[in-house]
Amino acid sequence: MSEDNTLSFPQRLWLLFFTFAKIAALVVGGGLAMLPVIEETFSVKKKLLTKDEILDMVTLTQTVPGIIAANSAVYIGMKVAGFAGALCALAGAIFPSFTVIVMIAWFFPGLSPDNPYYLGAFAGVRAGVTGLIVVTAYKMAKKGITGIVEAIAVCVFFLAAMFKLHPAAIIVSGMVFGVVYTALLKHRVTAAAKGGKS
What we know:
- There is one protein chain.
- By secondary structure, the chain is mainly α.
- The chain has 2 domains: 9-144, no CATH class; 147-198.
- It contains 7 helices and no strands.
- The model has no long low-confidence stretch (mean pLDDT 81).
């Protein structure tokens, strides 16, 4: 991990809380939609994490159970400032949503879901989120697809998703594929090393 030594521990805690509060308040869609903000803040600007660490975070948070935003907050928080960082990041991720829902329930009990202005606003948000997800998927593809085998695997899993195979089955299949592929590569390297010695 590349650390920015100019940030004190309290500053790191505030950065974690503020960044995840901003993500929870402004980034609709969660998951991949939040990745550009996380990468820009913690990798590009502050250099607290490498891009590979953020890619690992995306993989892990998509795999384990739970809310992706909360999982991401805990992972990034632990990496940047330990257990206290995880708590601050998680608090930041929860605070805006909790506040907004309480305000809506309190002040707007008669909010109509058929209001054309609300529907128009959400349509615009969905378009923006779709753009963010496409850009994020492109960045992940550049990092994750390093050869023909990975490209074929991505195409197979894409088709499986299109045919509505359960996401858990796709994730488990991906894990199995990764383990088998790594074992085969290791076996090939070992065999080549033994052949070179003889």
